[in-house]
Amino acid sequence: MFYVLVLAGVICVYFIGIVWAIIAPVMLLPLILLVALVMRPLGRKWALSVATVLVLAPVIYIYSQDLAEFKATCTGVSPPTIADRATAEGIYLNSGTANSFGNRYLREEGFSWLERQDIYDRSTFVRVTLDPDNRPSGEKIPAITARYEVRELFEQRPPDLSVSLTEIVDRQTGLVMARAEQVRFGGGRMKWVLGAHGSGKCPDPRFAPDFFHDYYHLARNTLRPDTK
Fold first, then answer.
1. Helix %, strand %, coil % for the chain, to 5?
2. Is residue 169 within 8 Å of 175, Cβ to Cβ?
3. DSSP helix/strand/coil, 99
4. pLDDT interval class at 8 (50, 70, 90)
5. CA gap 195, 90 in Å, rounded
6. Nearest residue to 73 (alpha-carbon basis) of 160, 166, 167, 191
7. pLDDT per residue over 41-77, tens digit each?
8. What is the per-residue burial (b if ≥16 Cβ within 10 Å, else e) of 154-168?
9. Residues 40, 50: contact at Cβ < 8 Å?
10. DSSP characters for 120-161?
């Protein structure tokens, strides 16, 4: 019963988060009405107008500053580049999300196996493959055997920017064979009242699908060029 309640709580929080992300700007309306009540001596029409300006002006000003910082960061993001290609059956995935999102390299990118750090013992490694039912199966290994490394780096920057860098590295020579970046913007300091409406990313799949495609499939394009 306890686990059922925990699961129900998680599901409720998840759906509340989705609803909030969609309707967050509506939360500004009660605040505008509250300020309008304080401004009643100005008359109903003027009170509502002044309240709207007093509430929205700081939101717009602060958000525009954070959005400008996001756009400035995006100007430094260059298209994915591939300096060299090779063919590899497997990779070493050096990423903080290798355990949770790494399986896409097996299911989507065409690799037969990947190696990553063991999340329970960081001094050892695991080789992951897919079983006949397409489920990941891990086997402990003492050391990395893959020649090629997919290195994923993540950096948080103010205001609410998440910068992701993916590099494909030849571990024998140290050569960086390919490189791609992505910047995500969570809405800055006004994200709590803007929700999903204040977020953005570059490259954005809506406006630069080829750019985003090359970023997302960098490993496949570099190390599995025949599986596109």
1. 45, 25, 30
2. yes
3. helix
4. low
5. 39
6. 160
7. 777 778 888 888 999 999 999 999 999 999 999 988 8
8. eeeeebbbebbebbb
9. no
10. S-TTSEEEEEE-TTS-EEEEEESS---SEEEEEEEEEETTTE
